Amino acid sequence: MIPVECFLVLSTLLFFIGVFGFVTRRNLIAMLISIELVLNSVDINFAVFNRILYPGQLEGFFFTLFSIGVSAAETAVALAIIINVYRNYHSDQVNSIENMKF
Amino acid sequence: MEYSYAFLILLLPFLGFLFLGLCGMKLKKPVAGIIGTLVLGTVFALSCYTAYKYFFEIGRGADGLYPTVTVFNFTWLKFSELLTFNIGFRLTPISVMMLIVITTVSFMVHIYSFGYMAERDENYKMEGYEKGFQRFYAYLSLFTMSMLGLVVATNIFQMYLFWELVGVCSYLLIGFYYPKHAAVHASKKAFIVTRFADLFFLIGILFYSFYVGTFNYDLTADQTLQAHLAGAQWIIPASLFLMFIGGAGKSAMFPLHIWLPDAMEGPTPVSALIHAATMVVAGVYQVASLLPIYIQFGAIEQLHWIAYIAAFTAFYAAAVACCQRDIKRGLAFSTISQIGYMLVALGVCYSLDNHEGGLGYMAAMFHLFTHAMFKALLFLCSGAIIVIIGSNFKEYMGGLHKYMPITNICFLVGCLAISGIPPFAGFYSKDEIITACFQFSPFMGYFMTLVAGMTAFYMFRLYYVIFWGQSYYELDPVNRRKPQEVPFVMWGPLVFLAIISCVAGLIPFGHFISATGASYDIHLNARVVTTSIIVAVIGIVLATYMYAPKKTPLADTLAKKMPRLHKAALNRFYIDDAWQFFAHKIVFGCVAKPIAWFDRHVVDGAFNFLAWSTQEAGEVIRPWQSGDVRQYAIWFLTGSVALTLILLCI
Questions:
Q1: For chains A and B, what is the number of CB pairs under 8 angstroms?
Q2: Judging by DSSP bridges, how do beta strands B69-78 and B84-91 pair with one another?
Q3: Interface predicted TM-score (ipTM) of this complex, two decimals
Q4: Interchain CB distance below 8 Å, B637 and A97
Q5: A95–B628 C-beta distance less than 8 A
Q6: How far apart are CA B96 and CA B86, in angstroms?
């Protein structure tokens, strides 16, 4: 059986890669992918802890499915926003929309 | 109801005001004037009918007194179980007398204004002023309504309400020629001074109603009040005197008289109606209505203060009237002096006995009646002269008796009446006042006799400088406009009022109005009559000697001999300047300015600081919202990491 630490290291790595990508990338699509990485790391955690702590129960798996569904919806919204940003600014760079304040 | 039509007396002029005020400017001038006059004519007829019915047809009740009839009296505001603010219509001998006075003078003024205002309108059109014939009639109607409401008031609060309304009308009519600076200043002055005095009136009413528990004049009628009255005994004299201060403001008593001479900036018919015959005697009417309370509740001392104030005012105004150049201002001071007479007569009362101590009540009302007639006559005459001459100043007059014979006769009748020459009206009423003064103290009697002599002197001075002496026109007949008689519409009312001034003294006034209400025969005291006639004749002879000839050496020499006295009298003994000093230097300088400074610097400063600090704080935190999404993300991340660390540490 694969030790639980391996899963946790994987999810931590995924989380920080996602955060790093979100902060450093300027392309909006890349930022969206980074967010997905963060979410996936959380999903892994859900699945792993359910398996180890409460074997025979399914709440964690269901929550993972729920989270995937929500993130799919969120991605759809985000893509719609990105398309609109692109239409208005003719750019997919995040620093092109800096005038989005008060 | 016997007087069920009486509400029309108030309603008709009010409707007239609404109609003329709203649609007057769409009507032709004569149409508006005729509507106003017809309405007033109807009210005049109704008032005369009411008086006839009250005094003759129904007459005295079973107790031998004229009954107090409350025609209607509905509650407008209910303050407490006892204290209600009613609007009503009350007939007493004096209110019926006032109805006659107001509607007669008002009706005459309405007719007279046809000629006067038309002429003035022409003048003002040439000078580019606002025309306002229709507006004038609207205001006159409103004034008549307010004044009638004042005299028929069933309680002090209603009186106060209409009291303020007549003040507003006075303000509107003094400032009638509003493009003229002097008129605007005069209207503001009149309004502020009388309003200042009315403040005391209101305070007096509040004290009175709080402690006594009613606004009514008649305290003995309501049994439930008896319990209150014992506890309120101490406050009644003070609150009555406070109310009198309000009356002193309206009736131009020293030192609140300063507005009345300036009020002469208004059109002359207004001066005749408001500032001579009706509104300015509101103070007298107020004291007379409250006189039973004064006497029953031991405010005798306050009455005597009123008498002293009024006597001094009468003397002061008579002295100033001797030196005025402006004929209307001369008449205004004469009005102040005569109102002083009426209030002296009320002030010297110390009981409600017709023969001893209460004579002044009847005398004051009698003088109010006759004075309204002859002073309105004098003002309307002066208006006729002003229309013809085009100026108020005596220098432009002189020798008018040849050109304006009817006005001359009427003015002479008015002068004889006010001087107290028998058988003209003023003789009877003034002698009653002087008799009442002698009953009070010999000094007061002699003092008022002296003022009567001064009255005769200044009135005949005015008469001679206008109608005799050197004619201004004849000095340069080629270039100057020739004076002529005024049209019938103006001299008709003059003749009517002159006839009343001749015969009003013969009315057995004591039969209708007296302190107890019982019939009282006026019997003239031979000694008083002789003294006052002699004094009046001396005044007239002196005036004739000094002012009737074309050259007036004695008057000029006297003015030169006593330059300071003459200048002081010309400047009304600097009372206006004293008020100016008081208002500007003391009230504005010492009270208003520090308060304004406090407001500007402390109150405004605090709010400005609040606004400034908010703005500065905004400037500081504004860069945080940069619009850079990644920056937000870093802040968010840092924050969540920091929170996690804090939670872990705890």
A1: 24
A2: antiparallel
A3: 0.79
A4: no
A5: yes
A6: 20
Residues present in chain B in total: 650
Whether residues B628 and A98 touch (CB distance < 8 A) is answered with yes
pLDDT tens digits, one per residue of B312-350? 999 999 988 888 888 888 899 999 999 998 999 988 888
In angstroms, the CA B456 to CA B52 distance is 34
Residues 6+ apart with CB under 8 A from B17: B138, B139, B141, B142, B145
Is the Cβ–Cβ distance between B378 and B408 less than 8 Å? no
pLDDT in tens, A24-77: 888 999 999 999 999 999 999 999 999 888 888 888 899 999 999 999 999 999
**B617 CB-near residues (< 8 Å, 6+ apart):** none
Q: Domains of chain B: which residue ranges?
A: 4-570, 571-620
Domains along chain A with CATH numbers: 4-90 (1.10.287.3510)
* Model confidence, pTM: 0.80
DSSP alpha helix (H) spans, B24-83: 29-52
> Percent of chain B scored above 90 by pLDDT?
25
Secondary structure, 3-state, B447-501: HHHHHHHHHHHHHHHHHHHHHCCCCHHHHCCCCCCCCCCCCHHHHHHHHHHHHHH
Q: State residue B602's pLDDT score.
A: 94
Give the tokens for residue A7: 């899963």
Mutate to test the interface with A, among B621, B628, B634 (most CBs of A within 10 A): B628
